[in-house]
Amino acid sequence: MGTNGINKLPVLKSEFLIDSAITYLNFGSFGACPKQVFENYIKWQYELEKEPVQFITRNGINYLQESKDALSQYLNCSAEDLIFTPNPSHAVNLVAKNLELKPDDEILTTNLEYGACDKTWQFYCNKSGAKYIRQKIELPLQSKQKFIDDFFKGFSSKTKLVFISHITSATGLVFPVEEICAIAKQRGVMTFVDGAHAPGQVAIDLKKLPADFYTGACHKWMLAPKGCSFLYVKREFQKMLDPLIVSWGYDGTEPSSSTFQQFHQFNGTRDFSAYLTLPAAIDFMQRNNWKEYSKICRELVLSNAQRFCDLLGSTPICPISEEFLAQLYSIRITTSNPEKLQRCLYETYHIEIPLIQINNEVYIRFSIQVFNSQKELDRLYDALSDIIKTTELIEIKGN
């Protein structure tokens, strides 16, 4: 990869509110708004405070529909099959609570899922006597087919639902969700994709993806303010979802809206301004040729992956290619005190980057967004090199 593409990335740095004193390599955790999107967010909040009644009970309903229409076009699905949620965890809870699990049922997933989702499924499985099957996925990944074969070793006649990440939070791996969902559907099993990291990072076409449920975070890679996510539900499964919070829509007082929308879209008084920013966020991406910038970000990830593995004495957790990687990359790191190491990187070197524990292993994960550059990855590399030389926080195997 040439340096021309990489050098284009910092051009958009001035569009964001990220503290210039911080090397921000943790977009994957919470995302960040461009200034234009954040200003749009504040505009909605001003309108709410000027006339709360009209905003919440009349105008806001139309604004929500406009935002949902924009999101549905972006995801290629019907707006009637989408509801907004504050985060994907809310969406997972909504589905899990309504599955009516029985003692013989099983939920099949991987052992690399997001911790909050693991806790949700374990809670409802414990409550019902069902089993939460965290099928072990061997790392490093070897091929897509090997992943699929390993995953379905956990499948049985008792499997009621397949739950799988589109892109995992801890490892940054892109899973073959299209193939997984297609096989599960052939076997007559419901599918639920956790796409928290996918919208804005990889292309999504919900008309083609054979998932019955799909949740995504717009406040990560789609650039929306915090508290903006969605749940997509195929039409035939919408009636099975009772609301998590029973509110005004429960008695069907809005005949122009589907029961699915009435049950779940309004949960009492709240500021839903974050949901209304999606047209602005999508417009920002379109005006700034986001596909090209995302491609450059992915190239930056791929060109640095092996370098960091070599530094930390770690084997890549997958083939270094776009088949399994997008704008996140995780490297196993050996440390006896991950929290102290993370604070050292932040307080001494001013680098915001997470250390994540999963299955008794620790990963350091960098995220590349349009405001990042090769210089910032070099800064991380130099900081880790310095820590290896001057402290005992990082252990290099073989040394």
Notes on the protein architecture:
The chain is an alpha/beta fold and 399 residues long. The strands form 3 sheets. It has a 7-stranded mixed sheet with strand order 2-8-7-6-5-3-4, sandwiched between helices. The chain has 2 domains: 3-34 and 289-390, Aspartate Aminotransferase, domain 1 (Alpha-Beta Complex); 39-284, Type I PLP-dependent aspartate aminotransferase-like (Major domain) (Aspartate Aminotransferase, domain 2), CATH 3.40.640.10. The relative contact order is 0.16. It has helices spanning 3-8, 27-30, 35-50, 52-75, 88-97, 115-128, 144-151, 177-186, 259-264, 278-287, 290-312, 338-347, 374-390, and strands at 23-24, 82-85, 106-110, 131-135, 159-165, 190-195, 213-217, 229-233, 328-332, 351-352, 355-358, 361-367. Mean pLDDT is 94; it is low at 1-6. α3 runs antiparallel to α4 (52-75) and α5 (88-97) packs parallel to α6. The longest helix is centred in the N-terminal third of the chain and has 24 residues, at 52-75. The protein is globular and about 65 Å long.
What does this entry show, briefly?
The chain has helices at 3-8, 27-30, 35-50, 52-75, 88-97, 115-128, 144-151, 177-186, 259-264, 278-287, 290-312, 338-347, 374-390, and strands at 23-24, 82-85, 106-110, 131-135, 159-165, 190-195, 213-217, 229-233, 328-332, 351-352, 355-358, 361-367. It is of the alpha/beta class and 399 residues long. The protein folds into 2 domains: 3-34 and 289-390, Aspartate Aminotransferase, domain 1; 39-284, Type I PLP-dependent aspartate aminotransferase-like (Major domain) (Aspartate Aminotransferase, domain 2).
